[in-house]
User: What shape does this take?
Amino acid sequence: MGTTTIKTDNDLIKYVKNVGESNFKKCFQCGTCSAVCPLSTEDRPFPRKEMIWAGWGLKEQLASDLDPWLCYYCGECSKNCPRKAEPGELMMSLRRFLISAYDWTGISKLLYKSKYAEYIALLIVAVVVFIEWAVLFGFSPASGASLNQLVSPEKIDYFFDWPMTAFLGVVLTSFIYNMYRKTVLSDKSVKIPLKLYFTEGWSLIFNFFTQYRYAKCDDGKEPFYKKLTDGKYNFWLTHLFLMISYVALFVGIVFFLDWFQKENSFPLLHIVLFDYFASIGLMFGTVYFVIKRLTKKIERSKFSHHTDWMFIILLFLTGFTGIILRAAIVYKLPVPWMFYLYLIHLLILFPMLVIEVPFSKWSHLAYRPMGIYFANLKEKAKNLSKQV
Amino acid sequence: MSNKSTSENPVLIIGGGHSGVSAALEITEAANKKVYIVEKRPYLGGRVLQMYKYFPKLCPPFCGFEINTKRIKSPFESNIKFFVSSTVEEIAKEENGTGYIVKIRQKPQFINDNCTICGECAKVCPEARPNDFNYDMDMTKAIYLPNISAFPLKFTVDEKYCKFSSCKKCEEVCKYNAINLNASENIFELKVSDIIFASGWKPYNVEKLENLGFGKFKNVITNVMLERLASDGGPTGGKILRPSDGKEVNNVAFIQCAGSRNENHLPYCSAVCCMASLKQALYLREKNPSSAPTIFYIDLRTPGRYENFLNRATCDENIKFNKGVVGKISEEAVSNNLILDVEDILSGKKMKFTAEMVVLAVGMVPNIKDDLKNIKIGEGINIGIDENGFIFNQDGLNGIFSAGVSKFPLDVYMSGQSATSSALSVLQRNYRRDNG
Assistant: This one.
């Protein structure tokens, strides 16, 4: 009889226990969670298998698992769990684990383990921004100068926005490659034909811009509009609104900063897209999620990790200071006010982006659609090989 | 210090089911001690009479219980005195003694021992009532014989449905002068030395398990209902037919732990359901030879020699087992078949399983917790109900004991053991008291 070696990792069990509030050790493998899950498929149901992998500390299986990215924490599993083991929360913890597993620098792991590490990391970035600002613009705005003379958009672009964007791009891409290596390349059972990468590309774009899996959380038979009017899509639509607002602002500011500081050539577009749509989306979305997390009425907002709070608060403050700065420019408030507001805005914005996007909660913006994309690739490749 | 007067008092046994009657017999046959049994139903025997067969020998319930009723004999010859249709109202400590004074309320006894169960009364009775013995799956008249093994063997009247003085047809038709609709209830006090709680259990209200659809879908039934469907005295005369269309069922899904081992419902294991479902799968195979039952389980708990019984079931190729319990049940529109969402854990695949009928292995809920709400308990009496409603920690020093499912979830065989144990405890306590 051949022997099978199962490698278990006690530190992993502790880590997963630490970064969430799931009682996965209480699980007795009844399978209720997988059976009630509206999102998991017949071939690879979750989260029952993840519960035992986490309970046993099976690092290899967990690190190569894409299913946490397919889970949207509908909460049916947690609601029906006879052991109150919170499988939905385990999937959340596993997403946190995966973020730190894809991150080869080890920073994510620190940030998830300790909130003080997160404070310090944010503070370090803020100090760097502060020093850069001191060198570039000083702290005593000359009287009579306009904002553009004091804080030139070119300098912001060259010294802040673009280096940061490049940093985020490089780091995140390397993490995504790491994810690809762990989840797709390591899986010897499937070989993905090159063609599929292109033909399945739509799912990447589609899921990034629609987050449609949220809508599947409710598998009731009512028609779409009925669910819409019943508020079953509120969470999904708010999330989508917030994310589109954010992406619009991010792209706008990084590539068209002029538009925000000076008169721009498309005033109507600017007012409608940024001043109204995106500003409202940012404020409404963040406040909505804060309320959900405070009231804890739905499963997916029942537990909040410190990184969840930090992310949403920073996002709110970034939006809030940005909107006030923009209002100050539009309504021509005294220039020194704008000067200092600008500094405050950057002191919040940059730490948030540099820390949260690659190393913390915000990375789900990339990992979620990539996860769905990779899972689709694997499934399609398997089906193809079956046909042959 | 001895207290002769207390020890001469009988023992009170609350509940005349298998445990209560067994305890009464053990006490009276082992010592010169009298026993009172207080039973809320109009007959002795309790839940076991509602079973079609016992496991593991697959014998019918009267097989064991008939012997017990023979041993009870009549109240005149025996040391056992029983009160049916009776409930305990009040328990107080006996002054200057170690026993108790108990107030009993006995419902009016409309039918006396002249009854020959000829059934003429039921023929003329115009009122109908849902038959609780068959879990409301059929009806009886308002004057009815509770079941074929009823002891005492006589008809009874359901006060809720009888029209009394405005009807009286049964009284007129009875040749034996057995009916008196003017009978009144009887409240009396008993002095007792010890109390054994043997008040049994009821099936968990599985309507609370919303995802399993009991009460919503006709073809989702409970395991206790299946016992009645299989019994000759049941609503289908012993044929296993499904409720929606009376079709003989072949593809039956048994769902284990319906309520049990579930922290949102009953956190404990009900101990009998695995064996019960195996038993039911086996007799379904016998009754409907083309049937193919599937048992959906978390893990099968068949301790000790019961494993032989499990082997018997697994040897039958038509009995399928699925590790993984059902998450959700929905109903097919026209066929009324049921679609089960379930994971097959051993293969790691999820599936939609279609079944003609679903049998939920419902958990056991001890009666005593609810019963105590209607009993006035005197000062200084400690009936140690635990968080799940059982009297696991009996107050033996003060003569409060428990037997059967009042103690913890157990099967018929073990309830006999627990009854013997409580009987022995009572006798030991009395011996110590009498002999200092």
